[in-house]
Design goal:
Keywords: Membrane, Transmembrane, Transmembrane helix. This is DUF4352 domain-containing protein. With about 200 residues, the protein is of the alpha+beta class. The chain folds into 2 domains: about 40 residues; about 160 residues, Immunoglobulin-like (Sandwich). The protein has 5 helices and 14 strands. The strands form 4 sheets. A 5-stranded mixed beta sheet has the order 1-14-13-8-9, with no helix packed on it. The radius of gyration is 26 Å and the shape is elongated. The relative contact order is 0.18.
Length: about 200
Amino acid sequence: MFYNDRLSGKQRKQKIALIVCAVVVLAVWLVLTIRINTIFPSKKIEKCGYGEWINYTPDIADIITADVSISPVSCKMYDRAGILKDYTKEQLGIFSEGKDDSDYLVFTVDIKNNGQEAVSINRLASLFIYCTEFNGDSNSLERMNTDIKTVASGETQRVQFVTNIKYKDAWMVNSRQRYAESDVYIVMSQYPLERRMVFSIE
């Protein structure tokens, strides 16, 4: 009887210890979760469609400082033969080389300079990426207007960018058509505020 009572007491202590450990772990998890969410809150998404303007003020030391407004104008899909017919290899830049079954997106946007200094389009575009929620595809963009290098103060320039589409194996069936039916984005900033220009493919 005494032996059994000692076992029961030992078991009670183990149970209490387990409960205390669980409470401590839960408390630590809650503190860390609250702290992380405070330091890194969920990002907000700001979207801009056709006929709308979105403000963009990147300020990155030694890269770019700008105050611009940007508006999406159009997005057109091309196959390899079609894009080589309408544009030169110089305009296509890094995307001038590709496979015969490659597809491309050409974006047209208006950029308005609200600041006092001229803005380099190359530096501005280096911060942009194309993406789609259709299959998680994303890629860099190449400026096509080789004759337009800057946007002067108070000026608005219409600029084109090109990227190629990376079809994922799981989406190969009717992927070109499904792309055409999906919205695509040019993302200008990602955290804590994600700014997106929203395009429908022509």
